[in-house]
């Protein structure tokens, strides 16, 4: 996917601020066997470890926030290019929207995506558009356009 693998800076900062915990291995009682994990922890005493539960929770909430922002931005962009205000996009409006999302799309890209999502009525409604954006992995591109490069970590 074109935008896959990029971790937004805002998420990295949240992880740095909340997920690291000091390595304080639990003390074993006399005669108690130490597991491999406990031995590894003791070998690196003083290092900082990452609390995976915190990281996963932060990632989940950040993903939900990004999803909401991208959907809101997409609906706003759709309204901006919908010249006649009928709530659906003709080809020219659809092309304008895609080029707002990613100016690097070629006319061939736009045509392919139009045919991929257009209904029997030769217009693209919001549900067809959402399906295309999701299937093509473009939500992060929409999010990036909405918040700008300062927040997405790709400055």
Notes on the protein architecture:
The chain is mostly helical and 155 residues long. Helix content is 60%, strand content 4%. It has helices spanning 9-18, 36-43, 52-81, 91-101, 107-117, 126-135, 139-147, 149-152; strands at 20-22, 48-50. A two-stranded antiparallel ribbon has the order 1-2. α3 (52-81) packs across α7 and α4 packs across α5.
Strand order of the largest sheet: 1-2
Outline the biggest β-sheet. 2 strands, antiparallel
What is the arithmetic mean of pLDDT? 77
Ends apart, CA distance between termini: 19 Å
Shape: elongated
Question: N-to-C SSE series?
Answer: HEHEHHHHHH
* Beta-strand share of residues: under 5%
Low-pLDDT stretches are none
- The number of E-state strands comes to 2
Note the main attributes of this structure:
4% strand; 155 residues; mainly alpha; 60% helix; two-stranded antiparallel sheet
In short:
The protein contains eight helices and two strands, in the order αβαβαααααα. The chain is mainly α.
């Amino acid at each position: 996917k074109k935008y896959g693998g990029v971790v937004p800076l805002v998420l990295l900062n949240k992880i740095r601020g909340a997920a690291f915990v000091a390595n304080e291995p639990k003390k074993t009682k006399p005669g108690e066997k130490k597991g491999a994990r406990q031995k590894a922890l003791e070998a690196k005493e003083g290092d900082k470890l990452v609390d995976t539960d915190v990281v996963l929770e932060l990632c989940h909430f950040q993903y939900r926030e990004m999803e909401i922002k991208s959907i809101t931005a997409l609906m706003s962009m759709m309204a901006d290019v919908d010249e006649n205000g009928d709530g659906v996009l003709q080809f020219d409006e659809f092309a304008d929207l895609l080029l707002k999302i990613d100016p690097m799309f070629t006319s061939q890209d736009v045509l392919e995506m139009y045919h991929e999502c257009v209904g029997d009525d030769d217009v693209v409604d919001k549900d067809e558009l959402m399906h295309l954006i999701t299937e093509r992995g473009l939500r992060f591109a929409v999010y990036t356009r909405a918040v700008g490069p300062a927040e997405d970590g790709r400055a």
